[in-house]
Every structure is written in C-alpha cells, then in structure tokens.
Design goal:
By secondary structure, the protein is α/β, with parallel strands linked by helices. It has helices at 4-16, 52-57, 59-75, 83-93, 108-111, 140-150, 176-188, 207-213, 240-244; strands spanning 20-24, 97-102, 119-121, 124-131, 137-138, 163-167, 191-195, 217-222, 234-237. The chain has 9 helices and 9 strands. Strands 3-2-1-7-8-9 form a 6-stranded parallel sheet, sandwiched between helices. Strand 7 (191-195), helix 8 and strand 8 (217-222) form a beta-alpha-beta unit. The longest helix has 17 residues, at 59-75. It is elongated. Bound molecules: adenosine-5-diphosphoribose and zinc ion. Residues 131, 133-134, 136, 156, 158-159, 161 line the site of zinc ion.
C-alpha cells in the first residue's frame, strides 16, 4: 500500500515541475509482464545476459546468447505498455517532461507513444538486432527461424559480421550520443523522477546525482530501497501502478485525486 501522503507529495512535485526528466528501470515494466533483473526469482537469473567479450570470443557464446534472448522474449511476448507508461508518454508529449531516459530494452515507452526525439535508451533496445561490424539493422522475425533451423548464430547479410541484439551488454561501450543527451537533460532538470530502478548499474545510476548536483529535486518511486534513497528529496515506497493510480495532472485547478485519472 502506497501511503496517501506520499502519493500526494509525488503528485505535487510533478505538478510543480516545468523541466521534468523521467528515468525508468525494469520495475516499470513488471506490471506489463516483463520481469525485472534483480527481484528474487527473476527468470533473468536463469538466463543471464552473456557479457560482451564472451559474445565476441566464441560462436558457442553467441549461440547461447541468442538462445537465452529468444527464451526471454517468449516469456514476455505481447507485453503492452502499462497505464504509467502511457502517463509518462503524456508528460513528454505535453512538454512537462523535457526527456525520458530509460534503461529498459522492451520498447514499451515507444509503444506507449513517447516521442522518439525525447526518449533515450541507455541500454539499447531488444526488439531488433544490429551487425557489430557495419551497424546494419536486422529484424528478429527474420533471424529467429534461420537460427532455429540451423543452430548458427546470425551473421550480417551485408558484411558477414556478427549480429547481436541491439541491447548494450555488460562490457559493451555505452551509446555515446544517448549518454550525452541523458547527461544534458539531467543538468537541465528541475525534477528528476526515478521509476522502478535498483540504481545499482553505472554509469546510468550516476544521472540522478548529476541532476541533484545541478539543482534538481530527486524523487524515487520504487518497491525496494535504493543506494540513492538518502540523496532523494522524496522516496515513494511501493508499487508503481498504485503510486500513480487515480492521480490527475491537469493544470492547476485540480489538486489531487481524480475519480480515475489513469
Ligand atoms: N513497483 C515498484 N517497484 C518495482 C516493481 C513495481 N511493480 N517491480 C519491480 N520493482 C523494483 C524492484 O524492487 C527493483 O528495485 O524495480 C527495481 C528494478 O531493479 P532492476 O531489476 O535492477 O532493474 P534496473 O534497475 O532497470 O536494472 C538496471 O541492469 O541488468 C542490467 O541492463 C540491465 O538495464 C538493466 C540494468
Ligand atoms: Zn554488417
């Protein structure tokens, strides 16, 4: 149960914000049926992502990486954006949020209608693949049948380079343009809103502190404690859907709980 006083404080902080930056983690997508990484029993523990250098080093590791990927994709096939994904997309479209920085690879922010130019994916996107040599995009629905028929990890149609899911694996270089954009937004924010992240993976987890150091208020909405809770101006402990349920963010006449804002 999310304490009503915390919900109201969350509501007021967002309503007062004019340069909101939203930062999301896997916890936002669990209510859409996509498992997060560190909740005990997560299927990701049985299908840990293969580190980048292992992927590069051996064909066997590449095969295993693709096997795990398709297993995990099946576990949340057909996942749809939650009401909170859609609310966040509204914040961006209305101009309340200057940017949305996600660690998630599930593409649900795009599905919810978040404008592409206001969305940064720090850890890439798992809904397509790219060639590690020439960058050519490859579609999963083309790769998968060939992989399942031959057992061979996909190679680039163009240059025969190794093809990998377009996610950023541990040990892989972070996307520079995405990091620069996320850093810029964090420095401009007047409110940095973290939703559903354990804030243990760097450099992403530095961004809330960058925002704070540049004058932003920091709000964390999360079921568990995070290392940055002590730095936060507000911690809303509990389920994300519940934290936002019924809150209406229409300017300014509305003070709080609307009959069914979401
Ligand atoms: N409501 C509130 N909090 C939730 C909910 C929910 N419905 N579901 C999960 N959580 C919380 C969990 O308690 C956890 O603290 O969300 C957090 C998710 O943390 P992680 O699983 O660590 O996910 P994330 O922070 O996004 O991981 C960062 O680690 O493995 C890498 O690249 C991967 O992007 C990922 C990065
Ligand atoms: Zn190529």
């Amino acid at each position: 149960m999310v304490a009503p006083a915390l919900r109201l404080a969350l509501h007021d902080a967002v309503l007062a914000s004019r340069r909101l930056v939203i930062f999301t983690g896997a916890g936002l997508s669990t209510e859409s049926g996509v498992p997060d990484f560190r909740t005990p029993g997560s299927p990701w523990t049985a299908n840990k992502p293969i580190p980048f250098e292992a992927f590069i080093a051996s064909a066997e590791a590449r095969r295993e990486a693709w096997r795990r990927k398709f297993t995990m994709d099946d576990s949340f096939a057909g996942a749809k954006p939650s009401p909170v994904h859609r609310l966040l997309a509204d914040f961006v479209r209305e101009g309340r949020a200057i940017g949305l920085v996600t660690q998630n690879i599930d593409g649900l922010h795009q599905q919810a209608g978040t404008p592409a130019e206001k969305l940064v994916e720090l850890h890439g996107n798992g809904t397509y693949a790219t060639c590690l040599d020439c960058g050519m995009r490859h579609e999963l629905h083309v790769i998968r049948p060939v992989f399942e028929a031959t057992g061979r990890a996909p190679r680039c149609e163009d240059c025969d380079g190794p093809v990998k899911s377009a996610t950023i694996s541990f040990g892989q270089r972070m996307p520079e343009a995405a990091m620069r954009q996320a850093d810029r937004w964090s420095r401009e924010a007047d409110l940095f809103l973290v939703i559903g992240s354990s804030l243990v993976v760097h450099p992403a987890a530095q961004l809330p502190l960058v925002a704070k150091a540049n004058g932003a208020a920091l709000v964390i909405v999360n079921r568990e404690q995070t290392p940055l809770d002590p730095a936060a101006d507000l911690v809303v402990r509990g389920e994300i859907g519940e934290a936002f349920a019924g809150l209406s963010f229409q300017e300014p006449k509305d003070r709080g709980l609307a009959p069914s804002g979401l």
